[in-house]
Amino acid sequence: MHIYERCAYLANEIGYRWIGSDGEKNAGDWIEGLFREMGLNVERPEIDCPAWDYQNTELIVAGKLFASDAQMFSPGCDVAGELIQVMPQADTTIPVDVTGKIAMIKESDTLNTSVYKNGVLFRNALLDSLKAAGVLAVIIISTLEETYATKMFRNPDSTLPCTAVNRKDGELLLAKTGEIAELKIVARQRQGKTSYISAEIGPADAPICIIATHFDAAPISKAAVDNASGVAVMLALAEYFAENPPESVRFRFMSFGGHEYGGLDMCGFTSKYYAKHHSDELLKIKYLLHLDVVGIKNSDPVIEVKGDSNLLDETIKLFASDPRITPEEYNGFVGADFGAFMREGVPCIMLGSSPTEKNEYVTTAYHSPLDDMRWIGTDGELDRTFDAALTMLIR
């Protein structure tokens, strides 16, 4: 199966796959089955995790139904209350009386990092403040014009119902401040299971290089770019090396569940578990190659290296003759799956996509119901990502 076709299968045929869901398990089964078809031994432990069963959201104001989806781990509800806009302070203090009301909060008002490291940590703390203040439920208004992220709030310990609307509908709702909104969310939190899938190729006593992806998704998202694309490239690499085994290195192909949950430390759920339970071997890892958000239409591979200046210099030399690729030092937030390794001193290479002309995917579909195959390039973008990864792995 072609890389593009595998990406489409994971996004379209398996589809929704947030942490602990049936879809996430089905995706893991599919990846494990492909590894086994390649003749590889597979490690796939079951790991307890917070899980979430979600069906639908109905948000009605003045007889109008607004497009809306609950935020990750939101409990269910069936409430009615007065709409009120809340502009929280930097320490999450609520400056108005919200008791018994439904709070509307602009995502753009939750990006203050003067107290908290980033917007996710701010918003998770904000849930506690809103709950203590007596709010019935929360509507977060996305910065995206036509859609919304489904994990702006993501705290499995919260008991406050939360949903999201796009910016366009959000402006309409803000104009209805003081009116009664009816919000029904059919969802429940529970304990569940997730996993990572690991398959290895190469001599047992050789240094380890990990090729990492995540196979889960943000809720209510087919997650074609984030990260069916990375999984499809990883599978192609595993297939290549199953047919051309390395002699001096051990390639460990890994796909992690629970990446999109992250946590209060922002690291992936099962990658953090893996790093904790394999601490004795972390020093044996030469580097981790992280494939995430790759193959966007009209993009080229972007390579960023963290933790080893020699590895960065070597990678720059590898692509010296390719003007489309200029490896750089990674200076972004240390989270996600690679963060669990990076924090233990493992050098990491992040392989992603260059911004499109207007960075259109990130500003339109990131972590949203619109992340589907429309954003995946059909002019060889995934193949160029494969070629770039292969160049690094056979250096």
Helix and strand arrangement:
Layout: H1 3-14, H2 22-37, E1 42-43, E2 46-61, E3 64-66, E4 69-70, E5 77-85, E6 102-106, H3 119-132, E7 137-141, E8 162-165, H4 167-174, E9 180-201, E10 208-214, H5 224-243, E11 250-256, H6 269-277, E12 285-291, E13 301-306, H7 309-318, E14 328-329, H8 336-342, E15 348-353, H9 360-364, H10 381-393
Parallel strand pairs: 5-6, 6-7, 7-8, 10-11, 10-12, 12-15, 13-14
Antiparallel strand pairs: 1-9, 2-3, 2-9, 4-8, 5-9, 9-11, 13-15
By DSSP, the count of extended strands is 15
Q: How many H/I helices? A: 10
**How would you spell out the order of helices and strands?**
HHEEEEEEHEEHEEHEHEEHEHEHH
Sketch the major β-sheet: 15 strands, mixed
Number of domains: 2
| CATH architectural grouping of the largest domain | 3-Layer(aba) Sandwich
Q: How far apart are the termini?
A: 26 Å
Q: Give the CA-based shape.
A: elongated
Indicate the low-confidence ranges by residue numbers. Answer: none
Mean pLDDT score, rounded? 94
Determine the structural class based on helices, strands and strand pairing: alpha/beta
Oligomer: single chain
Nearest-angstrom radius of gyration? 22 Å
CATH homologous superfamily identity of the largest domain: Zn peptidases
CATH top level assignment of the largest domain: Alpha Beta
**CATH topology call of the largest domain:** Aminopeptidase
